[in-house]
C-alpha cells in the first residue's frame, strides 16, 4: 500500500518502520518543514494517510486529505472540539475518516473493561471514583485523549458523576482526572474506585509506543475499503 505519513515525530517514525516491515511503501512524510506539500497529494498517489501530528495542525491536515480524496486515520489528540465539522465534511465529500484516541488493541479492550466495571459500580454508591494518566514530559495536551475516552465510559454508566475535571475536586458530581508528566513514560492509565473498606483499581501500562503504531498500521490496511467515519469498535468488531 502507498502510505503518506502526516507528522514524522515519535509516532510517525515508529509507524514508518512497522509499515515497511509489513511490505508497504511510504510515499510522503509530511512534517512542519514541508507541510505545504500535503496539498499536492491525492487519492491517486496515496492509498491511505496516517496522521499523528500536533493538536494545532491536525484539523487542517485532515480536511486537506478528505478534500483530496485520501482515506485518512488520525491519532492526534487535543483537537476534538472540531470533530463535528470534520464529520460533516466527510459526509459531504463521501470520504473516509478514522479516529481513535488510542490505537493499541490492549487499550481498546481496557475501554470495554472500564465500561463493564462502571456499570457494576453504578449502584455501589459508597465507592468514590477517580482516574490518573501518566505520560512523558513532551506531551502537549492534558488530560490525554485516552483518559477522556475512559472518563466518558465512566460518565455514561455511573449516574452520580456528571462531568470530568482535570484536577482534584471536592464536588461529588465531578470525576477527577489527574495528569502526571514523567520522563519517557509512553502512556499509563488507571481508574480507581475507593471505599472505606477497600479499593478496586484497573490499569493499562504501555511498555513502548509499538502497540499504538502497530494498531495504526493494521487500521490503515483495513481503511481504504471503508466509507464514512469509522472507529476502533468498527475495526475490532467490539
Ligand atoms: N491515538 C494514539 O494511539 C496515540 C496518539 N498520540 C498522539 O499523536 C500525536 C503525535 O504524537 P508524537 O508523535 O508523540 O508527537 P511528536 O511531537 O513527536 O510528533 C509530532 C510531529 O508533528 C510535526 N508537525 C508539526 N507541524 C506539522 C504539520 N503542519 N503537519 C504535519 N506534521 C507537523 C512535528 O514537527 P516539529 O517537531 O518540527 O514541530 C513533529 O515532528 C500527539 O497528539 C499524541 O497525543 C500519540 C501516541 C499514540
Ligand atoms: O501523547 C502521547 O504520547 C499519547 N497520546 C495518546 C493520548 O493522549 O491518549 C495515546 C497514548 O496514551 C500516548
Please explain how this structure is put together:
The protein is α/β, with parallel strands linked by helices and 238 residues long. α1 crosses α6 (210-222), α2 (55-67) runs parallel beside α3 and α4 (105-121) packs parallel to α5. Helices cover 34% and strands 24% of the residues. Strands 2-1-3-4-5-11 form a 6-stranded parallel beta sheet, with helices on both faces. A 5-stranded mixed beta sheet has the order 7-8-6-9-10, with helices on one face. The chain contains 7 helices and 11 strands. The protein starts with a strand and ends with a helix. It has 2 domains: 2-103 and 210-236, 3-Layer(aba) Sandwich (Rossmann fold); 105-205, Dihydrodipicolinate Reductase, domain 2, CATH 3.30.360. Bound molecules: NADPH dihydro-nicotinamide-adenine-dinucleotide phosphate (NDP) and ligand LZUJQKHR. NADPH dihydro-nicotinamide-adenine-dinucleotide phosphate (NDP) is lined by residues 6-12, 30-32, 35, 52-55, 57, 61, 75-78, 100-103, 212. Ligand LZUJQKHR is lined by residues 77, 101-102, 135, 139, 144-146, 187, 212. It is an enzyme of class 1 (oxidoreductase). NADP(+) binds at residue 32. Keywords: Amino-acid biosynthesis, Cytoplasm, Diaminopimelate biosynthesis, Lysine biosynthesis, NAD, NADP, Oxidoreductase.
Amino acid at each position: 500500500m502507498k502510505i503518506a505519513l502526516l507528522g514524522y515525530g515519535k509516532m510517525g517514525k515508529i509507524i514508518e518502520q512497522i509499515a515497511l516491515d509489513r511490505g508497504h511503501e511510504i510515499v510522503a512524510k509530511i512534517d512542519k518543514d514541508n507541510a505545504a506539500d500535503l496539498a499536492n497529494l491525492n487519492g491517486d498517489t496515496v492509498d491511505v494517510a496516517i496522521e499523528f501530528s500536533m493538536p494545532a495542525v491536525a484539523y487542517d491536515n485532515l480536511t486537506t486529505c478528505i478534500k483530496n480524496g485520501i482515506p485518512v486515520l488520525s491519532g492526534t489528540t487535543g483537537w476534538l472540539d472540531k470533530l463535528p465539522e470534520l464529520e460533516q465534511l466527510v459526509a459531504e465529500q463521501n470520504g473516509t475518516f478514522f479516529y481513535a484516541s488510542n490505537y493499541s488493541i490492549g487499550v481498546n479492550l481496557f475501554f470495554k473493561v472500564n465500561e463493564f466495571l462502571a456499570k457494576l459500580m453504578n449502584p455501589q454508591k459508597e465507592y468514590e471514583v477517580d482516574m490518573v494518566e501518566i505520560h512523558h514530559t513532551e506531551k502537549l495536551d492534558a488530560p490525554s485523549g485516552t483518559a477522556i475516552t475512559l472518563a466518558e465510559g465512566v460518565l455514561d454508566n455511573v449516574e452520580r458523576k456528571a462531568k470530568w475535571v482535570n484536577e482534584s475536586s471536592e464536588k461529588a458530581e465531578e470525576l477527577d482526572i489527574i495528569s502526571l508528566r514523567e520522563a519517557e513514560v509512553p502512556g499509563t492509565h488507571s481508574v480507581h474506585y475507593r471505599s472505606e473498606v477497600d479499593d478496586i483499581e484497573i490499569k493499562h501500562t504501555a511498555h513502548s509506543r509499538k502497540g499504538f503504531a502497530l494498531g495504526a498500521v493494521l487500521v490503515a490496511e483495513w481503511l481504504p475499503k471503508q466509507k464514512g467515519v469509522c472507529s476502533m469498535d468498527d475495526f475490532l468488531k467490539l
